[in-house]
Amino acid sequence: MAPVGAALWRSLCAHQVYGANTDVGKTIVSTILCNAVNHRNAEEKSAFLKPVSTGSLDEADDRHLQRHAPNTLTKCLYQFDEPVSPHIAARQKKFTIPRDDEILSSVHKTLSSWAGNGVSFALVETAGGVHSPGPNGNSQADLYRPLRLPIILVADSRLGGISSSISAYESLLVRGYDVQSVLLFWDDYYQNHEYLGNYFRNKSIPLVPLPPPPRRPQSQNSDSQARDREALDAYYSSVAGGVDVVSLLDELALRNTQRIEYLEEMASRAQKTIWYPFTQHHGMAARDITPIDSAYDDFFQTYTPEDSGQQGKLQATFDGSASWWTQGLGHGNPGLALSAAYAAGRYGHVMFPGNIHEPALSLAELLLQTVGNPRLQKVFYTDNGSTGMEVALKMGLRATCDRYGWDASQEQINILGLKGSYHGDTIGVMDCSEPSTYNQRVEWYRGRGHWFDFPLVKLSQGIWRVEIPEVLRESLGADQELPSLDAVFDLEKRVSSDAGARYKKYIFDTIEQLVLEQGKKFGALIMEPIILGAGGMLFCDPLFQRCLTDVVRDNPRLFDGTKASSTESYPQGDLAWSGLPVIFDEVFTGLYRLGRKSSASFLGVNPDIAVNAKLLTGGLIPLCTTLASEEIFNAFTSLEKRDALLHGHSYTAHAVGCQVAVHSLQTMNQMDGNGSWSEFKNDWKQPHTNDEFRPREGLGVWSVWPHRLVRDLSYAESVDGVFAIGTVLSISLKDAQGAGYTSTAAKGLQARLTAGGPHFNVHSRVLGNVLYLMSSVTSKKESLREIESLLREALL
Amino acid sequence: MAPVGAALWRSLCAHQVYGANTDVGKTIVSTILCNAVNHRNAEEKSAFLKPVSTGSLDEADDRHLQRHAPNTLTKCLYQFDEPVSPHIAARQKKFTIPRDDEILSSVHKTLSSWAGNGVSFALVETAGGVHSPGPNGNSQADLYRPLRLPIILVADSRLGGISSSISAYESLLVRGYDVQSVLLFWDDYYQNHEYLGNYFRNKSIPLVPLPPPPRRPQSQNSDSQARDREALDAYYSSVAGGVDVVSLLDELALRNTQRIEYLEEMASRAQKTIWYPFTQHHGMAARDITPIDSAYDDFFQTYTPEDSGQQGKLQATFDGSASWWTQGLGHGNPGLALSAAYAAGRYGHVMFPGNIHEPALSLAELLLQTVGNPRLQKVFYTDNGSTGMEVALKMGLRATCDRYGWDASQEQINILGLKGSYHGDTIGVMDCSEPSTYNQRVEWYRGRGHWFDFPLVKLSQGIWRVEIPEVLRESLGADQELPSLDAVFDLEKRVSSDAGARYKKYIFDTIEQLVLEQGKKFGALIMEPIILGAGGMLFCDPLFQRCLTDVVRDNPRLFDGTKASSTESYPQGDLAWSGLPVIFDEVFTGLYRLGRKSSASFLGVNPDIAVNAKLLTGGLIPLCTTLASEEIFNAFTSLEKRDALLHGHSYTAHAVGCQVAVHSLQTMNQMDGNGSWSEFKNDWKQPHTNDEFRPREGLGVWSVWPHRLVRDLSYAESVDGVFAIGTVLSISLKDAQGAGYTSTAAKGLQARLTAGGPHFNVHSRVLGNVLYLMSSVTSKKESLREIESLLREALL
């Protein structure tokens, strides 16, 4: 499945012709338009492409053009000789059915060669209606979508044609097509052109009614065929020069030019008005901004501007950051788009307090069930990871202060966390991270916590290594080596090893010192399980996170201050929190990003509060959930309104987001259940895995990135370490300058990926000296292989 | 335009029959299903309703049922005797065309009476295809949407029928319909039933293929008609008992029951899993939660549970809080839904740093142009008002600290604001409000600012009164009376009055005291212009907000601390900020909520930073913008990455939100331009307005709520004061208990509105002793009138 660039040329005004139904006269309209091109200017070249044609060769649409628009170049790519839908015609023939990507690539190649050969106007005519299946059974509207040609829609002038024309238009619209013109035949009785003319005018889409073509003669003898041909020729020559048709051609040409001009200008206009997130604008030039015309599946269609006579062009660029880690089910996913539209059409907005609607309820139930943590009973909705973490923080602090009887207005309550953590950019959750480059210039930032240094895991020279940072060497000992990634995650074994004991002692001693000697109070333990994302794709030794949780939960007396001698008054049981509420920020790592429903499951820890976002809505729309235990929830119930969690946003639990999330989550759960990733999983069941650490069935760690690639990269000269889990591949590069915000080596690798391979470029992101790649959960093996080749070329 | 309840009865399984196209056999399918009901159980009653029929009476579809399903009740509401689309047939007749709401109401009444008379199965058959226009020219899919009957779609078995069937399905889906079953005729050649069967099975929609009906004889003599009838009867009796058809009936009945069961359970299931925003859950029962099945235009469809044998029912409830102040263009707006789907289909997600896409660029440009404040040059995107205000706060603090050379890590920088302000629930912006019930239980809350008491405006006993609070009497003098609302807003006059001078002196003295005596430092002035929403719909005297801004801008030496003797080094000019950056939180009050593009325009103040959300996306989807001046922007440019605004969210500038916002904003701008609100505006050009205060053309204050109503309410015994601006009506009630979070009087009025009037109930919200009502910008005068009557009954 090689991707294709979207179709766009300055020199060639190319359109796709879709019909509101079969037999609405697409080919007649195509003939009229192609003739009109020549009528306007005899020197101009027009061309007609029928990618897939069914019916007898003689009746084929390209033949019709050859007869009646003799100056037009014509081509048919695939001809099936039965007048039925291509998916049926194709399977009745004895030859190989072209793959969808082959069809796309042939269409692009044909148009491209026409563009290079002086053709100024081209039509690509579909078969049947917009959703008529192509040879492989996929709807044409979906099949041709990556090209995203602007559309000429031939509407239906018959009885019922208003309805079918509008529905066809809507089906194109929800797939992100731009319909640039509608044509149809006059019918004085049904007058569809009048109704539809008004309808499309309101959408700034010109509709051109055409005189109806002569009726086809009933008999098929050669005389009548000749008469038919003459009548048609007379018809065509009378219509081709029509004012409406010629001005439509001008309009279409203008829109093609405008589209390109807009793409040329977008970057500089953006620079003028847009204040970008996380961006130092000083020195930023328009060329640093990439216009994205559309996106489909794993690919952005990025625009490369015109340069010294070269036409600007759109090209497929692999979205290697999973669009800021949000992307799950592919860009431009029509199923998700329809789910969004369904909820928008059913509800719009439902103000949430005091009300309930189906998407919010379904998602709450589905999510609790999916995550499968028995502690988590309640769902609180917000809009993004940052607000969801603010809510989690408020929950945790309240529960702790209530249990331990602290007055937080009189003293500072801190959180326990890890260095390099990131929980969002609102000031409350910024305060949950240690002072750093990111917050030092935020005037109201006041870090409130203690953040542990921790050991990192990486594959280096073929060996999985737990690296103990310098400052922890004395307490935690030397680096450890483990035989496989599965062994790294074999926590039931590791937690009772010497290393586990050392980790726990160090953690216990540190907290004891903070509380008893420094008098600090803590309100919650907050962690991103497994990978600290924004902090630099840091793969934290899961044993450390597990031990930290265990120490906090096993030692409530460490935290309670006033009640150091007795813990008996605290709630007991499997679902009760102990020591501190444990908050897991799974915004990035949750919901299959690392190949599992929850990243907490890697640690064997059930947090008391968990936050999900990003993949939750499959990369479409903002939504965040904060899940909490019944006990945390009860810390907010009282007779007083003021004790409630007085937090909400206008679009809390908005119907569109919840509906899309239900769709996304169901799809991923199905994929998980039906073995969609089994090839990747098998690849990671390594023969060299030490039997001792063989994971229980279904618990192995796996990645979409090939195990061999990861291992080979770990030997590369410029690579310091590498790891892959789920959809994430992280490559840490050796850099003389150390790990600044950007490193030269990482930037170099990024540039190599940007230059791309045979079929596409690769967009990637760099964090310090780390370049990471992240796929969606639906990425194709072929794409990943091509990226593998690029990485091997660049690094090995 | 009276609204109608959605159609739902436990005793009656009612469906709407839509066709994928005209002539696909809707009536034959209806006949089969009605016959099958009787075949299953001879005692069961079925019924068939054709709301609008075209073509000769004899050919009419209800006649067909009478002939071939003799046990079925039939009814046709409107018959037009030409076989064309109803919108054409209707205009060729000499009689009155029924309004769409009349048709809806007749359908509902008919079904209701059938439900009460033992009918267990009913079909409502549409004319033509899903988008075939009704008598008034509106698409049937839109026209019937308020009833939201579950759908039986008759698919098209002809060539091209796959496409038209799927497109028709999609058009229904994006309007929030539930398609519960698809039926179509076998065609062994085209085999559409096979393709569509798979297609719909994947969506859990059962598809039942039916044997094709006998061909109609060509000649029309009575013999052939009789044969035709016999053949049809034979056909019907062979099909009606088919296993597939009978099990479909069972399935449909089951789904009807399940839908009701779900509506019955929703509240208690929600109570089990949902943690509601701003809600004290203690003592909350399931009955306190309202299930909302759908929403359309200004109305929720709320579910009233079954009670002592009474069937549960859906009813239209006016959304009197504009769905938490978000609602602009009506719930379930198909245009907005399609815009959302278009962007979802075109892009999905586009990670924003370094990239640009059309919706984000278009919105940025359109918004800056709409707001029309020359200071505002840059657009920063976030997800909601709270995050947008966090960004505004970071912007303001940085600009001030940079200019005045303050090290904010060493000392506290405060904000200046008003008491009762609200800017969201993330902790950073909570700190921008004074200590109160809302934040006292948030452990990390630390109010950082000074908040002014201020005079309130209200209409009381027919007089517009500026009420000076007790604590300000000494400084500001006695209450003022003004002859009209326009006079209240005549700031150019009032600012130079005695009152203006007193306001300014008081403000100046206060700030001077705070800075010079208490040594406080301030980083920004933050206000909600005109109305402080969450604080209790407080209508702040606009003169006070204007004077506060003027004092801050005219006296930079008040703030700069170290440079008290000279201001010359500060940037000069119309676009430069002076004293403090002025931040306007227009999340609630902006973008036509108060009848104008910006609420800042009422004050004649151009803020340096402005935040918009809520109406921005027409009540569909979270999105927020923070607009800033070039100078503020420049405070973040340097050679250092760390100086940039390091803030962002995953879905920053998400394509779906931006596209919907462009659509929403363009629509409102058009309404503003084309006089959509002129009737409301004229109503507020009061003859008794003192000429002295007559506003300049186009600058008058107006409301959708009638001027007479507001005036009359101001005399009501239980009313303390009232005001209306734009879409907002606020009624402050006298309450012995004072203004707590809820007051008895306000709750009483709310209960009265909930009980509703002849056509609908009214959902409203209470803040303390204030009950407010808020419409969308497209609310119909008829609805508003009915609410007016309710208010008059309750209060006068």
For this entry, give a set of tags.
elongated; 7-stranded parallel beta sheet; Aspartate Aminotransferase, domain 2; 3 domains; Aspartate Aminotransferase, domain 1; alpha/beta; 37% helix; 7-stranded mixed beta sheet; 796 residues; Rossmann fold; homodimer; 26 helices
Number of helices of chain A: 26
The name of the CATH topology of the largest domain in chain A is: Aspartate Aminotransferase, domain 2
CATH architecture of the largest domain in chain A: 3-Layer(aba) Sandwich
CATH level 1 name of the largest domain in chain A: Alpha Beta
Q: Give me the side-by-side strand order of the main sheet of chain A.
A: 3-2-4-1-5-6-7
CATH H level, superfamily name of the largest domain in chain A: Type I PLP-dependent aspartate aminotransferase-like (Major domain)
Oligomer: homodimer
Largest two-chain interface? A-B, 170 and 172 residues
Helix-and-strand structural type of chain A: alpha/beta
Give a count of the beta strands of chain A, DSSP E runs of length 2 or more: 28
Dominant shape of chain A: elongated
Rg of chain A computed from alpha carbons, rounded to a whole number of angstroms: 31 Å
- Poorly predicted regions of chain A: none
* Distance between the first and last residues' Cα of chain A: 26 Å
Keywords (chains A, B): Aminotransferase, Pyridoxal phosphate, Transferase
Subcellular location (chains A, B): Mitochondrion
Region (Disordered) (chains A, B): 207-228
Protein name (chains A, B): Bifunctional diaminopelargonate synthase
